[in-house]
Amino acid sequence: MIAQEIVQVITLVLILVGAALAVSFKDLLASILALAGASLLVSLEFYILQAPDVAIAEAAIGAALTTAIYVIALRRTRRKEKE
Amino acid sequence: MRGEMSVIVRTIARITYALILVFGFYVILHGHLTPGGGFQGGAVVASGFALLPVAFGAAAAKRYLNPSLMRHLEEVGSLAFLALGFLGIGISFFYNVLANSGSLFGAAVPFGPNSGILNSAGTLPFMNWAVGLKVMTGLMTIVLVLLIGAGKEGKD
Amino acid sequence: MKKAAVFAAFVFVAAFLLFAAGRLHPFGEPSAPAMDDYFLAHSQAETGANNVVTAIVFDYRGFDTLGEATVLFAAILGVVAVFRGPREDER
Fold first, then answer.
1. Looking at this predicted complex, what is its ipTM?
2. C-alpha torsion B32→B34→B35→B37, nearest 10
């Protein structure tokens, strides 16, 4: 039980780190990948909280499809954020 | 070719593409037994398909995937789901007429932990297939139309 | 000035979320379990589905799923309408 809580805390801290990295990166491709990583960790957190249905949907839509759409959008715009 | 990603991405896409598709169809077909269902499985299959245009470019993807056909299949899935809902209109909307009837998908399941009887749940597997078809082709339409629309306009 | 406002908003939202997190129900003990107990006890006999989540999504609450399908359809309609581009005879 205590081990599960430790895993949960680590996952939540890593989600926060991923979200902060997604905001702070100047290279937008790296930012998209940080967002996908945070999304995958959210999916892991759903799985730990015993909601595998939501975990599958989050992993498929949040981590894969959103990333694909962002990469497609990035091809038509600048890769670097202007300061 | 323009729009292709690096050789690493293309090799990984070639390997994982089939595995993602198999997992997605498994989630759809076993939706009434295991976690998941039409929406989740359809999203997994669509993400597997979305790997193709992202890795190989819009021109290569357009040879295999037709957005217009995808859109029509999405409408077929919607109408099938609505028709399955109307199947039980004699008692109530979305009434499960096939459950526990002994016919196709009509086996009764015992109370308790998952017994794994595939031939159960009445109209739920059909609804899973309809929603799965709808979600996979719908999300695929979004990705393909965005890709083609983004590649067409403007030259820089 | 702007930075101070952003920082104040951040502190306010963070404090609000932490306060809400402290007052959550304990995990696995819902506040109104009567409906949950009914679904867990009857869904296998009534719908024949071993997966109770699927039984709720497609049978007990099928109308909600129809609404979700409508939302997805409307989203696809919007994307196709915006990104379709001119037809061959309109160029």
1. 0.79
2. -40
